[in-house]
Amino acid sequence: xxxxxxxxxxxxxxxxxxxxxxxxxxxxxxxxxxxxxxxxxxxxxxxxxxxxxxxxxxxxxxxxxxxxxxxxxxxxxxxxxxxxxxxxxxxxxxxxxxxxxxxxxxxxxxxxxxxxxxxxxxxxxxxxxxxxxxxxxxxxxxxxxxxxxxxxxxxxxxxxxxxxxxxxxxxxxxxxxxxxxxxxxxxxxxxxxxxx
Length: 196
What we know:
Order of helices and strands: HHHHHHHH
Structural class: mainly alpha
Number of domains: 2
CATH superfamily of the largest domain: AhpD-like
Strand content: under 5%
Number of helices: 8
CATH architecture of the largest domain: Up-down Bundle
Shape: globular
CATH class of the largest domain: Mainly Alpha
Distance between the termini: 36 Å
CATH topology of the largest domain: AhpD-like
Number of strands: 0
């Protein structure tokens, strides 16, 4: 059965770009992403916002003080909490390539606590989960995260969680299609009940 395509805004077509949209598109395409798809294309509807948000995104994904496996772990937690299919589909392969185990990815996909081999991974997971799920980081989890990541790492972790929340909100609000990667598992579980 074919579903009716979404009628929600997906971003402007290239032939319709304003001067500002063209400049932002070129800036994103020339960067490490190499393409403007999904939520970033939606953002072109507000080029000034797109330009600022994509710069934060480049920092969050490529330039933060966290090692790639740690930032990808935080991104997967964010995608799961928001049930953001596009983000999940695009970041599972990156997370696996960065060294997160298939078992850990599967557990996160099911909203379960994964077995993580390193103290810093556990600290990132716990802090990201509490921040998203509980809207705070408890003192014990904060102390472990700060001890493992340092102050800069903890600031960067919060920035990654915040940026990918914006990405996930965009994906969900505008019904951005998932793409070709692995599908996020469908859960009958509210975010506040995940990872208990």
